[in-house]
Amino acid sequence: MKAFEVRAPHDFSIVDIDAPQAAAGEVSVGVAFAGICGSDMHIIHGDNAFVRFPRITGHEFAGVVEAVGKGVENVSVGDRVCIDPVINCGECYPCRIGRPNVCSAMQVIGVHRNGGFANQVSVPAANAHRLPENIALDQAALVEPYTIAANVLERMQPHDGDALLILGAGVIGLTILQVARAQGLTDITVCDVIDDRLDVARSLGASHTVNGQREDLEAVMAERTSGEGVPLIADAACVPALFPQLARIASPAGRIGLLGFNTTPSDLVQLEVIKKELTIVGSRLNNRKFPEVIEMLASGRLDATALVSHRLPFAEMGEAIHMIDHHPERVCKVLIELDA
Hints:
Radius of gyration: 20 Å
Strand content: 25-35%
Order of helices and strands: EEEHEEEEHEEEHHEHEHEHEHEHEHEHE
């Protein structure tokens, strides 16, 4: 079969390898579609500390079950599925308290073990989610980024009527926007420095947009909230230097959700946090959010294809990576078709 293999930073190609076999408790999935994520690009660039090379990447994918291992009962051959990439041990402290997405021994499909940029992949059956008939496989391949959004929103605990500020109108920022609207939030401001991305945010339902290069975000939000501040702030820009400003923009009792893996320290003005009693939460991957997002797609409250800027066949994987690297302003989500 064909697989996209990263052998070392900046050293990758489509190779021929043997198809994996489904071990006990696993299923083999014929991959139909897979999305290229920013974290895939970090692996390609050598910026992911968790990966070990060589690695078949890809953690956003969907396809059809082709074989099942011994003891598998939740899915059958022929089922259409999407895959939760988070594999947890079930025994450590985070797992025991219902936080398996930060399992002490966590593995992520496409990072710690081979992923979905291949004609076929074997995964734990528990990570395979059956799809309703009205969800096409191209949409199902993008369930995973929406689970990132659902996770950070749950971590921030929205209340009815809360305003939300999203920093960054890349894929994650736009998924947060869409999921927030699907959950009933209506007052949503999106800030970015690229006008084309802000145009997309408005088309997806942003109440307001701010170009952070031309406008003073802090002043805009102070005026918009009559000085009260913003209850919910999701940082999908992941620029550590912006954190002090976010703390100032947040309302008393506000919640700030952080998503980035940037290792640069952020300045923390403790007075700002304490006087407002801010809640600052990290959000990593997803905590069993696949059923929730699948239901949103099935009900029509989400349209994952709205994110797709490019569809390319598997043979053009290298061209897709070059485009993302050199023309990121033109790209939202690149979807790769593997079974063409």
